[in-house]
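Office hours follow-up: a student asked to see two folded examples consecutively, so here they are.
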Amino acid sequence: MRKPELLSPAGNLTKLKIALAYGADAVYASVGSFSLRARSGKEFDMDSFAEGIEYTHKMGKKFYATVNGFPFNGQIEPLKRHIKAMGELNPDGFIIATPGVMSIARELAPHVDIHLSTQANIMNYLDAKFYHDLGATRIVAAREMSLKDVINIKERIPELEIEIFIHGSMCFAYSGRCLISAVQMGRSSNRGACANDCRFKYELYAKGENNDTLFRLEEDESGTHIFNSKDLNLSAHIAKIIESGAVDSLKIEGRTKSEYYAACTAGAYRRAIDDAVAGCFEPKIYADELNTLKNRGFSDGYLISRPFEKSDSQNLQTSISEGWAQVDAFSEDGKTFKAKGQVFKNKAYELLSPANEKISLGEDEIGRVYQKEGKTFVEFKKLIGPTGKAFESVHSGNVNDICLPAGIPPFSFLRSKTENKDEK
């Protein structure tokens, strides 16, 4: 069984390194205002973007640059300069949404592969062939496409790579083609500035034909988040997707999400892919890990079942819910950590580390690292900085580096169970 690529979001250089450490085969990122995630694009400048590409290639993995915004006429010349500069950094592909931008990329950076963004809404083999003939080597299928249709496209155009989304935020509009943010907030989602208006709480009013009186429709709390889509989670279907032989890349959404999100999703789906290929697929394991994340509720989207067959794709209660894990600390170097929540002495914190990194169990003057019920934990005897300064506890407002016990890998997280959560 052929392994598809696992493609993770890289919202900044640290998230890029985390995703690769936790098992991603490739990452995608952007610089500037020509991407649909302008906020994450500000996390990179050209120097750090070049560093990210170099770092990724040194690890033998791939880097895709997103240029999938919809430019106005006045942006064409700056866009040309942008694509030329990006091409000189030698990413492995450009993610592009329009034929015009494709033509610019082919002219100015012919050595860079073109991947057609999901914003192009590819749903059938005719459109897929059209863009393939224009030079696209890969299509990112519309989230509304079924696996049956993905297979059909692959059978008809076997040389065309197909990428699908497997996890992350879902837009209530068709393949992200939304104007609500632009109308209400003056921020265009199609140019990377979505204000997430669909996540807001709304009240409904009725107006009579013969007067201008407005009456508020009575609602309970379950009826106010009327646009709010649940998050996509296809972890339970990874084995079926791989068995189809039609999918070349499995993509995780979320460039603006946290370092922990980058680690958790890459690690969970890395294991799901490897287990599926090895014939030991266990969906509950991956679901339990992904349930540690903040989410809007999970849905398996439309790849496996048709849209009209589904009635659970919206979360009408709240715009977001806590996962069962509180992230208390993050360590980039494995020697010290910075607090993300609260860390106390003599309290056990579960350790999340890259799967291929060795963890040394044991005890030293700072604390101990041990295993219990198949999980690894850290307890601190002391909370001290590299200079020896001692703390009774540390929290997210404390910017000091705090020393870790020996044997903890880089890019590790300390987490604990959120209050009032019963998940194991």
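And the second, which I mentioned at the end of office hours:
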Amino acid sequence: MTNPTDTGARTGPAPAPVGKGLRGGSVGLLASVTLGLSSVAPAYSIAVTLGFVTLAVGDLAPAALLLGFVPILLTAFAFRELNREMPDCGTNFVWTTRAFGPVAGWFTGGWVVIVATLIAMTALSQVGAVYLLNLLGLHSLAEDDVVVTVTALLLLAACTLVSVRGLHLAASVQYVLLGLQLAALLGFGAAAFARDGAVTPSLAWLDPSAFDGFGPFAEAVLLCLFIYWGWDSLLAANEETRDGERVAGQAAVISTLLLLGTYLFTAFAAISFAGTGTTGLGLGNPENAADVLTTLAPPVLGGALAKVMQLAVCVSAVSALLTCLVGNSRGTLSMAAHGALPRTFTRIHPRHRTPAFGTLACGTAAAGTLILLRLVSADFLGDAVLCVGLLIACYYGTTALSCVWYFRRSLRDSPRDLLLRGVLPLLGGLLMLAAFARSAYDMYDPAYGSTSFHGVGGVFLLGAGSLAAGALALLIARTRFRRFFREGRTSVAALTITED
């Protein structure tokens, strides 16, 4: 069952995919936006990133947040247009395959996305575990690696169970978790502005021309790319979203804009209250960089409400963990349905209509990755998380360029098509690939991260190693799923029969 039409030559919508067994119409626009925001873990992301951005560029951190958002927004337009044309839960995998062929689709749209998400899940489960133990007053246990790992595994198991039960339940849980995060961030910001000694925010903090050289600017923008990553998970639920080809794309753009507003408000408030000094509460103090909000919450909110901020960061990590499971399981479902993974990944829970096998496999793989990295070294786990930036830039950039190439013959149809399907995605893709090159260059330095090997940074080795492992997996997959790789970009125009 394939469509022989060359996708590069066609301008009409792709054939509607045969249903994969998911429960359609489970969520609407609000739930989609909620899933997108939750997957980014806004409270956690800004807490662990703002300090490092400030160390790099001082009070220009808001400018870095704004500039880091530009390639994200440009990429979001590409995702929206591709989703309108091909509303498949495989998203990057399907789009890249249709544009560049099965090799690029399987590698950048499949492998890179899955690995990046699994590594992120190890960090999220660990962060959630540490915060949970501290919230319960078990501070000594929060410093015990074994206890933290076991707690993280329990959180993974709980999120996996919720994800298996259905997208509607997952979205309902996310309403509560995201509401707590946003309330905590907005409350923190309002209280910080109201405190005695807080300075009036300056528009100069948004001036991109004030950066002192390209190095600090690039470092800060790359850090900001990480805190926006994850919003695209909502598109994996496009087949379960009401009017998914339209609503899911709208939710992608809306969620990124809401993230920008939340981050800028929080950054302005933190800088206004604490400043960028290198001592005390200053955001330029290296001792505060790892978790700015936990440091500033007690003097801003008081002891009791500071606990709420800790809770917000905890649930932020857990909610992102839940959304990662939703996105990855639907990605593997689509790959299997199109003949690029074993048929077992197409198994749908008979009652909940969710990709049960893929969800369990994703949760198990994340647990195995966490245990493996923990056994190697705690520093190794930290470097593995840092290498995710390399993978993010790789698949975001490729997907944005896929939009341009797929629609290349229809770009002259209207000014709208030229702008939204050509110019903006092209700029986004080039910026992402530039970020990839810059990330690789920085990560090669042995001083980058916590580990190194024979003068090469451990973060670079992990990132390059993930890509090299993907190349090996691709070679194996080509012998295993010959039909998918033989039929090229037309093989995902309709569902195929998965080979045993």
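Two things to take away from it. The chain has one domain: 29-492. The longest strand covers residues 452-453.
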